[in-house]
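Can you please make up a whole protein chain along with its backbone structure tokens because I've never seen that pairing?
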Amino acid sequence: MLKMVVDTMGGDNGSKVVVTAIKNFLKKNNDVEIIAVGKKQELQELEGICEIIDAPDVVPMTAGALDVLRMKNSSMMIALNLIKQGRGDGIVSCGSTGGFLASSTIILKMIPGVKRAAIVTAFPLQKRHNYLTLLDCGANLENSSEELVQFAWMGRLYSQIVVGVSEPNVYLLSNGGEDEKGLSTIKVANKMLRESKFPNFVGNIEAREAILDPNVDVLVANGFDGNVFLKTIEGTAKYMSGLIKKAFKHNLSSKIGYVFAKKGFDELKNSLDYKAVGGALLLGVNGAVVKAHGNSDERSFESALRVLKKLIETNVVDKIKEGISHNE
């Protein structure tokens, strides 16, 4: 039986969203036990289906690592310490990103040999049933060339283990496709990957090409660029969805046309919906740590729970350890 720890507090939409997501998730996954950590009075609907641990304090969204570490009775700290004590196989939270990532690194430590942790996520490509693996999505602002090369290894392993791509094509996010384009760290990382004959390293790629090219399996970026890239895609998807919806409501003919096009429109909408992924793994930390969107609704938090379950089932942390050790 898998055991997952959930920090139920700190999200933009309150604990009610998390409670509903947990209930929906457990209806479909009877091989999972959940320890829900948060204010007990807000978790009453979970009594009888979850173990509930009362946590009187909530980490604010603006909290940093030191702030979280001082809040011993917060849901985040209690949940992380449960993982450290071996009471859970993995943890998910939609609380403060900076506080959660930094305190996870301090409490659970890094995988031996990993220089910096990275947030990794996957989102749908044009190629049907395939996903692009992106890292770093915001665990860091800047990264060295050596860290980018290590991200390439971790991204390759994640794509193989979780996404199921046997030989993923790896790219560096830059402002041009030529090897000499980009920041100095990108140029050096490109050279290091070329000289080491990194498996299936294709080269640099621009943001506009990365999202359109169905052959991009792993996209490596420093944390700032990766975060901007991801949020731009999310915003564009939301914008396009709104435009399409408005177009169908234009007149009676367009509304009738919607009836015939609904199936295709629904497929398009689902492929653009970043909430279908729901959560991102903090890759490099010695534990299965998933950060859900701060503004998660019931659907996206349930998706984050599914992400965590898959990470535990595929034993991704131990496999990353083996892969990093082998490639040091």
